[in-house]
Design a protein that fits this description.
179 residues; alpha/beta; Rossmann fold; two-stranded antiparallel ribbon; 7 helices; 35% helix; binds magnesium ion
Length: 179
């Protein structure tokens, strides 16, 4: 059975979009921010507003239950789990990974501790993935769109760009049938 590594933030969960909604609803200054404005992940303060990065971390730490699941992601995850060995991975620290376990019942492996896998589905596949990975489904997001083609250019990894996680799962079921 092939092993698929599945990222959480930006892949299964609309973390950035949920944060934007949270800011837009509660901002006393009448801020209006969108995920499309965030064209570089490490320039949050410049692209949204000064102090946005601090607010983003506060949101992630304290308003975890307001982070939405992308439409169809849960169904796709359950479906693919029947056909693939699925490992959910995140670069978040242990305490935050535990929040996902509590909320969704997932076992979440730290990206630093993943040792093997055949396929990766990620919106930001920049970390040192296991060398066994041969296919990456890049879930296209504004904040990594410039960066990802460069990261994977000089590797033998096949990169497939998709708009949503569920689309990657559909393609996996068509193109990589289990024998
Ligand atoms: Mg991610």
């Amino acid at each position: 059975m092939r092993k698929v590594l599945v990222d959480i933030d930006g892949t299964l969960l609309d973390t950035v979009g949920s944060f934007c909604d949270w800011v837009n609803e509660y901002s006393a200054e009448g801020l209006r921010i969108t995920p499309e404005m965030l064209t570089k992940y490490d320039a949050i303060d410049e692209l949204w507003y000064p102090g946005a990065m601090e607010h983003y971390m506060e949101f992630i730490d304290n308003f975890h239950d307001q982070i939405r699941v992308y439409p169809g992601a849960m169904e796709a995850l359950a479906y693919m789990s029947e056909w693939f060995d699925v490992e959910i991975v995140s670069s978040r620290p242990e305490l935050q990974r535990k929040l996902f376990e509590d909320r969704f019942g997932w076992h979440v492996t730290s990206k630093d501790e993943v040792t093997d896998g055949d396929i990766l589905i990620d919106d930001y596949p920049k970390w040192n993935y296991p060398e066994t990975i041969s296919v990456v489904f890049y879930v296209k997001r504004p904040w990594t769109f410039d960066l990802v083609p460069n990261v994977l250019r000089d590797t033998p990894i096949v990169t497939v760009t998709v708009d949503q996680f569920a689309e990657a799962v559909n393609m996996l079921m068509e193109d990589f049938p289990e024998d």
